[in-house]
Write a structure and sequence with these properties.
It is an enzyme of class 3 (hydrolase). Helices cover 42% and strands 9% of the residues. The chain is α/β, with parallel strands linked by helices. Among the domains are: 177 residues, NAD(P)-binding Rossmann-like Domain (Rossmann fold, 3-Layer(aba) Sandwich), CATH 3.40.50.720; 69 residues, no CATH class. Helix 2 links the parallel strand 1 and strand 2. The radius of gyration is 48 Å and the shape is flat.
Length: 431
Amino acid sequence: MKKEGTLKVPCINVNDSVTKSKFDNLYGCRESLADGIKRATDIMLAGKVACVAGFGDVGKGCAQSLRGFGCRVLVTEIDPINALQAAMEGYEVTTMEDAASKASIFVTATGCRDIVRGEHFEKMRNDAIVCNIGHFDIEIDVKWLEKNAVEKIEIKPQVDRYRLKNGNHIIVLAQGRLVNLGCAMGHPSFVMSSSFTNQVLAQIELWTKSDKYKICKHFLDALEQNKYGWFWECPNGGQKCHYRHAVPPGFVLKKNKKNIDEVKAEDTLTIEDLIETERAKLGGNLPRITLEIFLAWKKAKIREKQDSEQKERDRKRDEFKAGRSIGLSGRDMFTFRPELAEDDGQDEEGEEAYDLSRLEGEEDNAEVVREITLENLMAESLKAGDLAAAAASPIEASMATSVPIDEKLFEDDDLEDLEELEDELEELEIK
């Protein structure tokens, strides 16, 4: 309920408390299970084969109890860790399908639905005893017995004997409900005191620290309406609000719950269900689909497609012959006029032949590319005091032998102008 957002009030799951599950579930069931079976049936347990479905805390206590009375105990468990624990304790781990024909006593302790079903009842030995010490009455399919049994006899209150069509009898204790409460007085009071103490402590915690567990209604409304942010202020006193302004892990808002439900519905819908749903929309009186009908339908569809393509080709050919070639693709034009498709010639090796005569006029304007080396870039010699007289490189045949320089570039007049400019700048800096 917490994950789905349907939990309306704060609560504490006492069953998750270690001081409850490791004592009440284990040691309480170890004593009350055998008490309930013996009060209801007065049978001797020693030497019988018993099957315990589930090896959690409750299943561990039940297996220890039956083994203590001399039963050979089989354990069915889907959790690999718990199953390995059962094997290490010396129990035979098997499946309910295999144990149904071997055991004389069946005890369900899983908390799950439909652990013992109709196919298991039909395999059981005559007068097999079936009881439940898990949650409620969902683990044993008593409705199947009520519907398929030939006869039902109430031996005494909470003890019913069903006769099946194969002639065997099944004894069900407490109508599939908790056998230690329906046929006995439940757990001893001492071990129950620890469970009740946990409940009292949980109530004290919820009462004295309600602010810690209750979420502010205005905060939730702000989240639902996308109004919560840095500048949001709680109408219930702002920062002085006594309730929580945070959602617990896994909490789902109402606006998101609809999307999650839709995704779950899509995930659970199998392809078979989808086909049947769509088929039901077509109405009744539909023929059954067989392989022959499907193949005939497929051939008809292929033939229909081929006829449609042939009609389209004939239409395009008629339009092309009539001179209405607008809208025709290049492929259609080459299809209707094959002479337009001329492949280039190929040489003996299969590569395309290239006409070298096409390159005759291309060399007229070709640029000459020379290899540049370090020697070409180095001057042969430098004349002292004359940069313009630098000797040319070996490229002098195609380049100028010297670089002309304007000797009047730096005359005295220009130097005087520069000195005056410097004096003016110094005066400006001083000012």
